[in-house]
Amino acid sequence: MRSIAFADFLIGLGILFVLEGLMFAASPNWMRKAMKSALATPDHVLRAVGIASAVVGLILIWVMRRPV
Q1: Residue 1: its pLDDT value, please?
Q2: Best exposed site among 16, 48, 53, 67 by fewest CB in 10 Å?
Q3: Which residue ranges traverse the bilayer (predicted)?
Q4: Backbone angles phi, psi at 27, to 5 degrees
Q5: What is the rounded CA–CA span in Å between residue 38 and residue 41?
Q6: What does R_g of the chain's alpha carbons equal in angstroms?
């Protein structure tokens, strides 16, 4: 039997794929430009944005999953 946490992880991963796929389908040129921009961005900026995004995501998960 799968755990609830693993099921939540798979649901989150599925949502990620759906959103990413929709962005590529809706505007492939914009996504291409965004990827070129990411290649030109310094590592420290990408790292800071990634860490900030992860922290915001964890806070959102914590707020939504905490008992009321």
Answers
A1: 54
A2: 67
A3: 6-25, 45-64
A4: -150, 75
A5: 5
A6: 16
Which amino acid, one-letter code, is at 60? Answer: L
Rounded to 10 degrees, the C-alpha dihedral 24/28/34/35 comes to: 80
Reported pTM: 0.70
Q: What single letter denotes the amino acid at residue 17?
A: F
Please answer whether residues 31 and 23 qualify as being in contact, where contact means their C-beta atoms are separated by less than 8 angstroms.
Answer: yes
Residues 11-41 have pLDDT tens digits of 999 999 999 999 999 999 999 999 999 999 9
Kindly state the DSSP code that residue 30 receives in the 8-state scheme. H
Q: What phi, psi does 51 have (nearest 5°)?
A: -65, -45
Length of the chain: 68
